[in-house]
Amino acid sequence: MEIDWVELTDSAKAAMAKAYAPYSKFPVGAAALTTDGRIISGANVENASYGLGLCAECSLVSELFRTGGGKLAAFACVDGNGEPLMPCGRCRQLLYEHSAEGMLLQTTVGIKTIQEVLPEAFGPEDLNR
Ligand code: THU
Question: Distance from the CA of 128 to the center of ligand 1, in angstroms?
Answer without folding.
Answer: 32
